[in-house]
Automatic annotation (TrEMBL):
Biological process (GO), any one: acetate metabolic process
GO CC aspect terms: cytoplasm
Name used for this protein in its record: Acetate kinase
Domain of life (superkingdom): Bacteria
Organism field: Ligilactobacillus ubinensis
Binding site for ATP: K15, H207, L208, G209, A210, G211, D285, M286, R287, G332, I333, G334, E335, N336
Residue positions binding Mg(2+): N8, E385
Coiled-coil annotated residue ranges, if any: none
EC number: 2.7.2.1
Keywords: ATP-binding, Cytoplasm, Kinase, Magnesium, Metal-binding, Nucleotide-binding, Transferase
Chief localization: cytoplasm
SUPFAM superfamilies xrefs: Actin-like ATPase domain
Localization (cell): Cytoplasm
InterPro entries the UniProt entry points to: Ac/propionate_kinase, Aliphatic_acid_kin_short-chain, Aliphatic_acid_kinase_CS, ATPase_NBD
Length: 406
């Protein structure tokens, strides 16, 4: 039995889950937010529904890691730091270099830093977390699990843009995708639910959270995905635009200099002020938008465009794969929003999909939301990116132990 930490560190936050492996039991989970401020928030859940919260001054990630480990000791979740034998870190951009998870040595650390050009907000923040944990837990193996790695199986025709090919060769401009760990996990769970080998299935996984992406999975591998060079592409998201015509960018900068003086501001707006928020003017949260929709045209329009985009990508991927066996809804909206699942399924009736209304109204477990006789199965599956991270840490740890034992 060993304890493994799955970490998602942002520039001012640290999300964690501690697992007992290999039984995959969650011992504790939590979040430290507003790192760098005097009013940082600490939340830890553990035991039988126990919860600890605190507001305190946390200068940097090293202090945050100290606080976290001390709380794990204080609540007897660990008896000693040495019990934590591995730490897995979510890393957003792995470029073409990382096709699998990797043990973080000095070279891997440097490479994650170099790849910050592809994820300027994320990769540097991950590195801060990686360094802080390495310092406090030098005995634990440190592993990077990349959001992009799962999509490295896409065929060339699905990752090369219709641009000068030299841009790919010289500048690494291509589709990388994201949310790979989530798509991989829910695809495996879908195959279990359908009682068929994953390799035999054509699946479309819809990760609909604040960030949203849709992936076509063929022969058990990522075949195409809606996010692109960065997570800005694809379907409408909470505050991200998804696909737009690039010609409109220079047009708007030219015509609207006061609000959008340059490309930097434009990209900021496309990331933070567009999507559901931009269309509705109400909120970036689908719950608020659905509530407002009956009496607010723009909120209703945001719902309609979101649903249309999901349906459009599903249709595109069915055409690309020449069929589909199962469709999965996951992440914040996909797992929790009965109305959005229902609206999407209504528009997929042509595939022989019928909503199982009773199942679709349930919460919190993996379930078929299409009827048993639907030709294409539709599932709601609760994603668990942290579990994939913990599993990868264990797998890599075993390979190291094997090499050192031989
Ligand atoms: P991320 O990890 O990208 O921040 P999540 O997967 O946690 O996103 O999803 C967060 C989103 O899920 C929120 O933007 C919220 O709109 C949406 N969400 C959560 N619960 C519901 C619900 N019951 N109905 C509709 N949307 C929901």
């Amino acid at each position: 039995m060993e304890k493994i930490l799955a970490i998602n560190s942002g520039s001012s936050s640290l999300k964690f889950k501690l697992f007992n492996m290999p039984e995959e039991k969650v011992l504790a989970s939590g979040l430290i937010e507003r790192i760098g401020l005097k009013t940082a928030n600490v939340t830890i859940k553990y035991g039988n529904g126990e919860k600890y919260t605190d507001v305190t001054s946390i200068a940097d990630h090293k202090v945050a890691v100290d606080i976290l480990l001390n709380l794990l000791l204080r609540f007897n979740i660990i008896g000693d730091y040495n019990e934590i034998t591995g730490v897995g870190h979510r890393v957003v951009a792995g470029g073409e270099y990382f096709k699998h998870s990797a043990i973080i040595d000095d070279d891997v650390e440097k490479k994650i830093g170099d790849l910050a050009v592809l994820a300027p907000l994320h990769n540097p923040a991950h590195l801060i977390g990686i360094k802080a944990f390495k310092k406090q837990l030098p005995q634990a193996i440190s592993v990077a699990v990349f959001d992009t790695a799962y999509h490295q199986t896409m065929p060339e025709e699905n990752y090369i843009y219709s641009l000068p090919y030299e841009w790919y060769q010289k500048l690494d401009v291509r589709r990388y995708g994201a949310h790979g760990t989530s798509h991989q996990y829910v695809a495996q769970e879908a195959a279990k639910m359908m009682k068929r080998p994953l390799e035999d299935l054509k699946l479309i996984t819809c990760h609909l959270g604040a960030g949203a992406s849709i992936t076509a999975i063929k022969d058990g591998k990522s075949f195409d995905t809606s996010m692109g060079f960065t997570p800005l592409a694809g379907i409408t998201m909470a505050t991200r635009s998804g696909d737009v015509d690039p010609s409109l960018l220079s047009y708007v900068i030219d015509k609207n200099k006061n609000e959008v003086p340059d490309m930097e501001k434009m990209v900021d707006i496309l990331n933070h002020k567009a999507g559901l928020l931009g269309i509705s003017g109400v909120s970036s949260d689908m719950r608020d938008i659905l509530e407002a929709a009956p009496t607010n045209h723009r909120a209703q329009l945001a719902v309609d465009i979101f649903v249309k985009n999901v349906v459009k990508y599903i249709g595109q991927y069915i055409a690309e794969m020449q069929g589909v066996d199962g469709i999965v809804f996951t992440a914040g909206i996909g797992e929790n929003s009965q109305p959005i699942r229902s609206l999407v399924m209504k528009r997929l009736k042509y595939l022989g999909i019928e909503e199982d209304v009773a199942n679709n109204a349930t919460f919190g477990k993996n379930i078929f939301v299409s009827t048993a006789d639907s030709k294409v199965k539709v599932m709601r599956i609760m994603t668990d990116e942290e579990l994939v991270i913990a599993r990868d840490v264990q797998t890599l740890k075993k390979s190291v132990n094997y090499v050192s034992a031989n």
